[in-house]
Amino acid sequence: MNELKPYDKLIPYDLNTELFSDYTDKRRMVYIPPGRTVKYEKHGVLNFPVGTMLVKNFYYERNQQTKTEGRRILETRLLIRYETGWTAETYVWNDEQTEAFLVRTGDQKTVNWIDKNGTPRMVNYLIPTKNDCKTCHSRAGSLVPLGPKVRNLNKVYQYGEQVQNQLERWEWRMFLRDKPGLEQIPKTPVWDDPKTGTVAERARTYLDVNCSTCHHPAGTANNSGLFLSLEEENPLRLGVCKPPVAPGSGSGGLSYNIVPCQPDQSILHFRMQSVKPQERMPEIGRTLVHEEAVELIRQWIQQMECAACDI
Question: Taking 60 as the threshold, does the pLDDT of residue 311 lie above it?
């Protein structure tokens, strides 16, 4: 189990752009009960059947450069679909890496690792409480999956010696139905791969995955009026020249969420750079600055057509 190798009824999968979680690596798997299917619905929505289990393992390679020094698994999160809806559970791994135990009150682990640049790093990794899961996974008061959207699943995956598009693999395994041809299926870019999209496209995708979980009309931060999903087209709702609803220390003394071509005057950029609990965004799920993503958002704001924001 601690090698994270799924048995044959658990299908591994990956995402084009994933949620940042303090530079952890993740191993995802999905279980669909025999005889049941995932329905592909309009607008690229996947309707998972009762009995579905989405599994996400969080771990650090002890040396992310070589990946030859083993890994430390921290937690395994489950989203389980019951007749009454989805529920979230978290299992925390012991230090011996032999077992994981159900924990609903959260936990903290101090982790040391070497990052992709060869730099020694340390983090006090926070494992969420059961209520924390509701904060991000809530849509109009109901718990829902966030990562496995069609546009984020539309990519190839290495299945042993075979490489195959994930959606085609699911269809081949006969648990995805009503899927159109791949040419009709949307695909999000990889946020840090310039070959997959423009700066604006990749920045919007990053915000969609990392921020629109709450900043959505049906999310827990809907009272902010700041909506960061890919579907949002209104510049004001995206934060352009938009003052915060409740300015305070979280605004950094700045007046607008985004000031075109001025990232240093933009609250969005400021909050992504902060690690203070009262300032950082997202509020939960990270304690470190995602430095590469901050740079991408900086470039995106810098490329906007300059305009003065008037109070």
Answer: no
